[in-house]
Amino acid sequence: MINYKDKVVIITGGGSGLGRAAAVSIAKQGGKLVLVDMNKEGLEESKNEIMSVASDAQIETVEANVTNEEDVKNYVDFTIEKFGKIDGFFNNAGIEGKQNLTEAYGSDEFEKVINVNLNGVFYGMKYVLKVMKEQGYGSIVNTASVGGIRGVGNQSGYAASKHGVVGLTRNSGIEYGEFGISINAIAPGAIMTPMVEGSLKQMAGDNWEAAGKEFVSVNPMKRFGKPEEVGNLVAFLLSDAAKFINASVIPIDGGQSYKY
């Protein structure tokens, strides 16, 4: 049984999707949470959902833009001021971006996706690692994607950013293992989150539900993943039970990455 009693975890992108699911899992196991997101309403919804299953949970929320380095420093400083330490960090905030062939992919859109998905992850690691190195322990999980370990058609910005997350994870895991810090990434496939729903709507419009069924028909498990399945994996990787897993990228996609 994983125990998060007296553990402090920061989660970016905590206002929805995988961030919310991980927060629920960690709170149910006694963890103290700092949820970070740009979406104030989403943060409140996450807090309410967590409290409905873990009424004694200690939860703080911080509105922040992960592409703003000062905002990132502030949410790290806030956590230290409030709780005095950072045991775990789910570096999760991200966007998909618009879909298009590389030749037609807008330069501004590319920069936007890279800024959120890659720069935001880097800033988070930069400031959290300083704290964890001083502590002499800690665990980080970055959100990559199956799009970070293989190609994804019509999503140049997304694939490039997630490949970058994989590189940052492996490189930093090698750098910081000697300081008692484990750094890993998850590579989710088709998990039914608001982001994936939005992607299907970009592809298929009003027929997105039918497109989704066709999409998962080629998955070995014939279904979408559930956010809570990813949340449970994150909770494990951030826990003391997974301390010797380091510089790894763990797919959670029903086996689809290995089918072809």
Walk me through the structure.
There is one protein chain. With 260 residues, the protein is an alpha/beta fold. It folds into two domains: 8-189 and 228-252, Rossmann fold (3-Layer(aba) Sandwich); 192-224, no CATH class. It contains eight helices and seven strands. Strands 3-2-1-4-5-6-7 form a seven-stranded parallel sheet, sandwiched between helices. Strand 2 (32-37), helix 2 (40-53) and strand 3 form a beta-alpha-beta unit. The longest helix is centred in the middle third of the chain and has 29 residues, at 107-135.
Briefly, what is this?
The protein has two domains: 8-189 and 228-252, NAD(P)-binding Rossmann-like Domain (Rossmann fold); 192-224, no CATH class.
The tally of structural domains comes to 2
Distance between the termini: 36 Å
Gross geometry: globular
Q: In this structure, how is the largest beta sheet organized?
A: 7 strands, parallel
Estimated helix fraction = 40-55%
Oligomeric composition of the shown chains: single chain
Uncertain runs with pLDDT below 50, 5 residues or more? Answer: none
Spatially, the strands of the biggest sheet line up as: 3-2-1-4-5-6-7
Strand runs, count: 7
GO molecular function, one term: oxidoreductase activity
Keywords: Oxidoreductase
Family: Belongs to the short-chain dehydrogenases/reductases (SDR) family.
Protein name: Oxidoreductase
